[in-house]
């Protein structure tokens, strides 16, 4: 499916006088003020100390995920000594610049990714500590994040299930929902759409885990989301497999995000990344994309830097900027026809429409929201001068 079929809608505007007579030759200009599709990039603490990094980021992206700063091992390195200083500062920067934040993550099911002190706890102590962890971070950031990765990678790993019982993940989702009922709660997994050689997190197993979470007592009304890390190996991506996986997951009608997109270092890395991003953007079930990359500041994730140390674009950076430009709507100007109409196609988003009638020495402006629908539909807008 082409992006124009999924991310755009046709609009038809008519200019008339107050008596309903069509006005021909009216100049109409349309300018996008906000892009609806969330496209973002991971962010790390180095942004707090680099104006160049800040300017680079806010020029491009509307959403972010903190690489590590919200994770439990970052906020409670010593038991009982919570420190949200970095996460708070990064959230403030994001909010000041209208950048939405995904909450990543509350609990990680990988034994190796726990705070060190967690490994000394017995099962009762672990349950109490994890419950406090959920309460602490969710209460702190309630209403300030657009989604929570509640239990990270609970198909590949099962640290909490092995220690607390098979419903451990579902219980964490239940607790999170009680604390923050309006925010979408995501699973977040890798190799669900990236690599068919990994059978631990296939699309069908992903959906079964979502069903288990929802079947837990009290979770029937929970707002769930599908988080797909999309860490592609250093190989030519299997786009057909990716598409089939998205189709299967999309059938469940949960919002799908590609949450940590990257591809290992390989010749044509930038070209392959572009293929992956285009496929995600073109799928009607995908409602947001975050890439795990950034400028070169003492290295970058998966060796997929978007800039060199001087903030000059790499090939990867060029590929991302190319897509950002393509997926945004440039200025549009037209003159109404003999029946007072103009027609065009706009990406989903917010727009400012300006109308100028020189003969009448009058002008008019209005805001227009072009919302997403999964069917062909034309928006009709009537302008009276």
From TrEMBL:
As given in the record, the signal peptide range reads none
One family name in Pfam for this protein: Glyco_hydro_10
- What InterPro entries does the record point to? GH, GH10, GH10_dom
Q: Which family does it belong to?
A: Belongs to the glycosyl hydrolase 10 (cellulase F) family.
Q: Which domain of life is it from?
A: Eukaryota
Keywords per UniProt: Carbohydrate metabolism, Hydrolase, Polysaccharide degradation
Q: What is the protein's name according to its record? A: GH10 domain-containing protein
Organism whose genome encodes this protein: Stephania cephalantha
Coiled coil region boundaries: none
Single GO term (MF): endo-1,4-beta-xylanase activity
GO biological process assignments: polysaccharide catabolic process
Annotated GH10 domain ranges read 24-323
């Amino acid at each position: 499916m082409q992006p124009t079929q999924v991310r755009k809608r046709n609009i038809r505007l008519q200019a008339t006088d107050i008596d309903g007579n069509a006005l021909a030759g009216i100049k109409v200009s349309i300018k996008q003020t906000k892009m609806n599709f969330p496209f973002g990039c991971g962010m790390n603490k180095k942004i707090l100390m680099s104006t160049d990094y800040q300017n680079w980021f806010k020029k491009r992206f509307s959403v972010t995920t903190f690489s590590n700063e919200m994770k439990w091992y970052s906020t409670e390195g010593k038991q009982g000594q919570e420190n949200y200083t970095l996460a708070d500062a990064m959230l403030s920067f994001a909010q000041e610049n209208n950048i939405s934040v995904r909450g990543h993550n509350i609990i990680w099911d990988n034994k190796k990714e726990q705070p060190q002190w967690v490994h000394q706890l017995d099962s009762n102590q672990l349950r109490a500590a994890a419950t406090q962890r959920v309460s602490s971070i969710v209460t702190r950031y309630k209403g300030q994040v657009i989604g929570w990765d509640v239990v990270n990678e609970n198909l590949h790993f099962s640290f909490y299930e092995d220690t607390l019982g098979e419903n451990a993940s579902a219980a964490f989702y239940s607790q999170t929902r009680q604390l923050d009922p309006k925010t979408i709660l995501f699973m977040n997994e890798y190799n669900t759409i990236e690599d068919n050689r990994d059978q631990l997190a296939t699309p069908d197993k992903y959906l079964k885990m979502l069903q288990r979470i929802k079947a837990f007592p009290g979770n029937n009304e929970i707002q769930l989301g599908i988080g797909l890390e999309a860490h592609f190996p250093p190989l030519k991506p299997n786009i057909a497999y990716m598409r089939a996986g998205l189709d299967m997951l999309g059938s469940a009608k949960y919002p799908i995000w590609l949450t940590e997109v990257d591809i290992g270092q390989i010749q044509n890395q930038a070209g392959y990344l572009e293929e992956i991003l285009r496929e995600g953007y073109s799928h009607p079930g995908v409602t947001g994309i975050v890439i795990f990359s950034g400028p070169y500041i003492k290295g970058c994730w998966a060796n997929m830097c978007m800039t060199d140390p001087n903030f000059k674009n790499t090939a990867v950076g060029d590929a991302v900027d190319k897509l950002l430009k393509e997926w945004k709507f440039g200025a549009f100007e037209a003159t109404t026809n003999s029946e007072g109409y103009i027609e065009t196609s706009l990406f989903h988003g917010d727009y400012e429409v300006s109308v100028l009638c020189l003969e009448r020495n009058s002008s008019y402006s209005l805001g227009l929201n072009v919302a997403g629908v999964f069917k062909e539909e034309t928006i009709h807008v009537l302008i009276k001068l």
